[in-house]
Amino acid sequence: MSSLLDRPEHETAVLPSIGVWWPMLEAPLQREILEQPTAPLRAVVVRRIFELCELEDRPVPRSGVRLGPNERAYLAGWTHATDWV
C-alpha cells in the first residue's frame, strides 16, 4: 500500500521533493506553511526552497505554487511524528 497519490497528467511538479527541502527550511517558514498548507506559497518561500535545493537558476512561477496532496500528507505525518505545536 502506498501513501503517494499519482499526479494528474496536466499537473507538473514545480517544487523538488518535500523530503529534501522541508528538514532544511527555517522554522518561521515552516510555521507559515503549516498555518495554511493549502494556501499558495509566497514567492520568497518558493525562492528559499529552490536555494536549499541548489536550483537558484530556476524562475519562481508567477501563478503561485501550492503544496499538492502528497506534500500535505508528508506534513501531516511530520507534525504527528514530531509533535509539532
How does the SSE layout of this entry go?
Layout: H1 18-21, H2 27-35, H3 43-52, H4 69-82
Structure write-up:
This protein has four helices and no strands. The protein has helices at residues 18-21, 27-35, 43-52, 69-82. Helices cover 44% and strands 0% of the residues. The chain is mostly helical and 85 residues long. The radius of gyration is 13 Å and the shape is globular.
Salient structural properties:
mainly alpha, 85 residues
Briefly say what this structure is.
Helices cover 44% and strands 0% of the residues. It contains four helices and no strands.
Give the overall form. globular
Helix content: 40-55%
Rg from Cα: 13 Å
Report the strand count.
Answer: 0
Order of helices and strands: HHHH
> Helix count?
4
Taking pLDDT < 50 over at least 5 consecutive residues as the criterion, the unreliable ranges are 4-12
| Percent strand | under 5%
Return the average pLDDT rounded to an integer.
Answer: 85
